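Working notes for the structural subgroup meeting. M.R. asked for a predicted model of this chain before we commit to crystallization trials. I am recording the input and output together here so anyone reviewing the notebook later can reproduce the run.

Input as submitted:
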Amino acid sequence: MNEKNNKERLDAADEKKNGADIKAAIKQYVSEALEDMKQSFGKEIETRIAAEREDAAKMASMSSEERAKAEIEKSRRDFENERAEYVSERAEFEAAKELTAQNLPVTFARFVADGDKDVMLENISAFKTEYLKAIEAGLTDRLKGRLPRVSKEKEQPFDPFLNGLGF
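Returned structure, recorded in token form:
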């Protein structure tokens, strides 16, 4: 009985030790991941700050007319970027609708999307032919195999039903 209790105590101690080791490893992993994220965000923020300082210095040295032109140009660039992003998202949405209509996976919408609907339809038809070829090739590859072995001896198994019919 004492040996059993001692063994149980040792097992419990081992489990606590293993649990502490796992917790320490997780804590170390999380702290390393957080440190990496802090460094990457820090670099990104420093880059942004440097760019904003350069823009502010340029704006300070400009006349009011030049400053107004620069602000208009900046707002135009921002608008063009937003517009391009919107057109891209819209094209991807339209491609997803068309892929769904043709019973194709929607996950490929980003690859076939295009701002021009005719080009998008051409992309989808080209994708569909290649996709179906790939499926067919995969199926034929999986269905390949050996023919089942057939015995060369022709034994008639005993079948009471067939024997009753006279076969």
